[in-house]
Amino acid sequence: MFCFMVEMERIVKANDREYNEKFQYADNRIHTSKYNILTFLPINLFEQFQRVANAYFLCLLILQLIPEISSLTWFTTIVPLVLVITMTAVKDATDDYFRHKSDNQVNNRQSEVLIDSKLQNEKWMNVKVGDIIKLENNQFVAADLLLLSSSEPHGLCYVETAELDGETNLKVRHALSVTSELGADINRLARFDGIVVCEAPNNKLDKFMGILSWKDSKHSLNNEKIILRGCILRNTSWCFGMVIFAGPDTKLMQNSGKTKFKRTSIDRLMNTLVLWIFGFLICLGIILAIGNSIWESQIGDQFRTFLFWNEGEKSSVFSGFLTFWSYIIILNTVVPISLYVSMEVIRLGHSYFINWDRKMYYSRKATPAEARTTTLNEELGQIEYIFSDKTGTLTQNIMTFKRCSINGRIYGEVPDDLDQKTEITQEKEPVDFLVKSQADREFQFFDHNLMESIKMGDPKVHEFLRVLALCHTVMSEENSAGELIYQVQSPDEGALVTAARNFGFIFKSRTPETITIEELGTLVTYQLLAFLDFNNTRKRMSVIVRNPEGQIKLYSKGADTILFEKLHPSNEVLLSLTSDHLSEFAGEGLRTLAIAHRDLDDKYFKEWHKMLEDANAATEERDERIAGLYEEIERDLMLLGATAVEDKLQEGVIETVTSLSLANIKIWVLTGDKQETAINIGYACNMLTDDMNDVFVIAGNNAVEVREELRKAKENLSGQNRNVSNGHVVCEKKQQLELDSIVEETVTGDYALIINGHSLAHALESDVKSDLLELACMCKTVVCCRVTPLQKAQVVELVKKYRNAVTLAIGDGANDVSMIKSAHIGVGISGQEGLQAVLASDYSFAQFRYLQRLLLVHGRWSYFRMCKFLCYFFYKNFAFTLVHFWFGFFCAFSAQIALDTSYWTFINHVFIWGSIAVYFSILFTMHSNGIFGIFPNQFPFVGNARHSLTQKCIWLVILLTTVASVLPVVVFRFLKVNLYPTLSDQIRRWQKAQKKARPPSSRRPRTRRSSSRRSGYAFAHQEGYGELITSGKNMRAKNPPPTSGLEKTHYNSTSWIENLCKKTTDTVSSFGQDKTVKL
Amino acid sequence: MEETPQHCLSRLPDNSALKQQELPAHRLYFTARRVLFVFFTTGIFCLCMGIILILSARSTQEIEINYTRICANCAKLRENASNFDKECTCSIPFYLSGKMMGNVYMYYKLYGFYQNLYRYVRSRSNRQLVGKDVKAVEDCAPFKMSDNKTPIVPCGAIANSMFNDTIILSHNINSSVQIKVPMLKSGLTWWTDKYVKFQNPSSKNLADEFRGTTKPPNWPKPIYDLDKKDPRNNGFLNDDFIVWMRAAAFPTFKKLYGRLNRTHHFIEGLPAGNYSFNITYNFPVTRFQGEKSVVLSTLTWCGGNSLFLGLAYTVTGAITWLVSFAMMAIHITLKNKQMSFFHQ
Fold first, then answer.
1. Radius of gyration of chain A (CA)
2. Annotated binding site of A for Mg(2+)
3. Could you tell me which residue, A623 or A832, shows the higher pLDDT?
4. What is the ipTM of this complex?
5. Which positions of A are catalytic?
6. Across the interface, which of B35, B81, B123 has its CB nearest the CB of A970?
7. Crossing angle, helix A52-64 and helix A265-295, to 10 degrees?
8. A399-414+432-648 adopts what CATH topology?
9. CA nearest to A332, candidates A520, A621, A58, A670
10. Which family is this sequence assigned to (chain B) (predicted)?
């Protein structure tokens, strides 16, 4: 019955399980675990014996069971082997147990499923494809659903996709109008029998193609109608959806990379070493076997007076053959099995050191660091590339209103800044806000001057705050406690509105035609005359309102570069002043916006408004005409000032990034966020600086363009490079580089590469890959924006595969899981809501800055210690084994052991665990009379130790050996320190000299980044919300909107959604290059 | 609400030196003064030790007489196993030029006899030798049982191949008077061997205890008849037997045969003069191209007459001194360079 055919398309019929069962679609149960109780033993053993060492020792064990060959007792091998295998198995079992647990937890979540015309609670795992399920507000979505209807008008619903792509702003989904009419009518929903024909399961988060056939008509489906598993329903009290993909077929699961067995490079080195040593062992065995054959034929023959050969063992060649195997067993200690055990133990210890580290404990969330994988510690010291998520990892995803410049005056200086600005430091307590009851408690502002100005009634300041309170797309709501809650579509807009609120300009509510704000205690209702929405070419947003006095005003906010061109010439002085301020803000990594207003005259506006209506009604060139009209009215603006919003970085990010790049570790930022946001953060945490020679932006839309851009950037780079080095341009060189022979060119100067998801998809194609990688590796900083989870993993794979570098991925959300899994080391940020990243990670801690300690302290130490241990171990084993090789020449190559190896393994362990005392006690026990009395054949060494240790000669030999082995090392070290001192030696010497000279003075250099860069329009913001607001589609009609004297802007109510969709697909979400927007 | 801080505290890792990896550590810093001091003292110590050892080793006296070739006719006789019952004796005169003072030990020394062969070493039964069960012969292949299935005592290849020459040293005071030099056959073994590893079955009559067993094929007499003169030196407790049973680690080895009984004429040791070894030649070595010799030697506090340890100490000491001078030179030149560098 199992279908081996690859699913080409999917046909799903609603409410018809029997029909859907024909196709054998996966159900909604997920498995991330590897074993169950029955399969654990065979699969686990099979996996373990795939390791070279384990297999080798199994063979050895079998050899030892043959009495003719066995020169050692069998338990010397089986004890360590069983120990290793049990330890690994127990670890695997516990890991898998936790995976089972988390699977169960997810599979047993409840959701309401429509079965037999009734809503029933079902576990997630029992949800089948074609079922209709009901979701409620703030619930996780159980499977990939086709949205049928929702509580909001027009079948709208809002989802948060943070788990999928890391973006926290809400996305709108809307149902087909035919299905949204079903509403919450259970009977009608139960009768719904539409058939969906759509693409097979895939991992593309932003694409969906399908057709719904229902009631003899066909409706095309796209990504806007689909809610994906992993999303959370927000601001929507309920919605109904039909399951299209379930369980492993969902886009979330398809995006999670396979769990891979991670190995450290030392492990791999060990495996090859073991092979080499094995070869060496064979050589030794052959030499000794040949020796034995020769001896047997030349001398042994005559020696048979004293030692008969058994019949049939006469041939000396056969004796040599047996000797070969015997020596393989005797000399087996060169291939160290206990090494594997000891390595595991050491790594476990290192993991505990990480868990115990107080410097990686985050007290605010009471989360200590955790080494979830205990086998990777030394790899931490070898990291060359770090792939970091942005939101939640580098940034806190909190936007705060930090500073502003109003009418040429800066408010909100950072307290402990430079000397001339210290007047605020005396009063460090935050500003006491006017309307305490309404204020957002988390908001803090340290500059009292602004408050003063407000109280003084400075009209410019009031106007400034009024713009903040009026010109936005925020929706307000009152929660049960009567508090005002803002629902924001982009967090920085929320920051601005919240700031205005705390300064007394409280945005209260809005209808399609009005905006009500509370201005310093008095309620004022503005009539919203027009909403000039944001888009990516305009990079600004304006509202035209009529205030109660009847004046018509245009309030505008937008990117400074755009807005400054629209200013009235009289603003020149203010403009240059504000411009300076903006540079200062940008230098601190703040996201800036310019604020302006314009008084409109009634007549002019009416004319303009009429033209706008005409344009709206037009069928041809509608968008162009509207854009022209917007352009027309947004001119001669009066500048009010600028705002600076901080996308709050996590603590210590800048320092961490700096010190990591000092350690030559390259940091790549992979984010699902928009390009501008990503660049902004790049600047904020010093990854991008103004000192950089060039920043390449790759934003091509097809493979050819991307390749061209990459080539150009590369030429540019090498050209500039030559310029730098030679002073004149050398003619272009053909660059036909093979993928696996990419040589890192030495690049003088700093470069940065910024590439967005769409271009990345093309760049990751096989023939462009090499160009991308080459360019990326020459750049100091690489930022990839708008990438899907799988692309993150692909980028990591690319670097891992072709650069042979050790990679680390760090992230906090479900969208980082695949990247975390595919990197050599995955780090999850713990202490947050989502657990997926942590569960998939190898190490987890609460703050990005702990990465510094993890890599530079724990990683380094682990690596050092492991290397020292390995060197010692190999030395010890070789010393021990080669004695037997040597002794072979004296004992007629007869595989007699010179030292009692049978107990060596055991003694060895005790010895390693640090007890010479135990060593001696065991030695003496085994050489004691008592044990000889009990087992005379097994312990025939009685008297040896006693007799030899009482001889003075022995002690003299021991002493001489010690001297002869220690002194050369001392000489070597002494000469090394003298002749070739390392950096640390020099530093130590310098420190000593300093200590003698004078007590150390602590002076910490303070670095402040100075940058002249202006941030762009930094909204994580989408076009279309203006229309939603003015059309009132997203507002629940509580009371009919008040009729105003003005003619209302009329939009065709059936076309507005199409309008919105069209706009969003055309929207240029970056500076005009990236042509997609994910909703 | 009060539980929260406790909860926080419990997750905070302990602030112990071990857990925070702040255990005190010391790194040796090799300053010139310290290193050179250590080197010079070690050098002096090694040199002194070496000289003492060499002197004491040279103060020992040793005589070795290889009698494989000298008793050629006996060797030839023994090459044929069928002549086992024919006795062959051989007398080797030698002249002792100087007195051998103190305790004198007599050894036999074998060349090319592989007592360390794996199968040979294993071919013994410690359970039998400890006297618990004289019929325990499991480990003794190929000398477990005789042809008529009676267990061999002592079993195994080691015991079977026991050295069975008798060596008698006599002092020829003049051409007519010969005195047999008194040799003690006791005290040749380790204490543990005599009192722990080898025990006779507890019975007054040894022959009774060994009834139902047979002697090893190469032996002329059974184990309980090894020493006719001293009944306590029989059975498993025979000193020669114990000495032989401790398998040597190398194919050339010497084993203690007897020690001088310092009485009467020999109270100070062996006086100079003419001596002769009277050897009953039983042990065949020419068949495996081995050799055997008899050794007379005195001992000092640090063992026999081997110069190796003394030379090793001397060489180490000398090298240490050389190296320390070299290091001193390097250090001084470097220091001068640095100084001049700073002065610039």
1. 37
2. 389, 391, 812, 816
3. A623
4. 0.72
5. 389
6. B35
7. 30
8. Calcium-transporting ATPase, cytoplasmic domain N (3.40.1110)
9. A58
10. Belongs to the CDC50/LEM3 family.
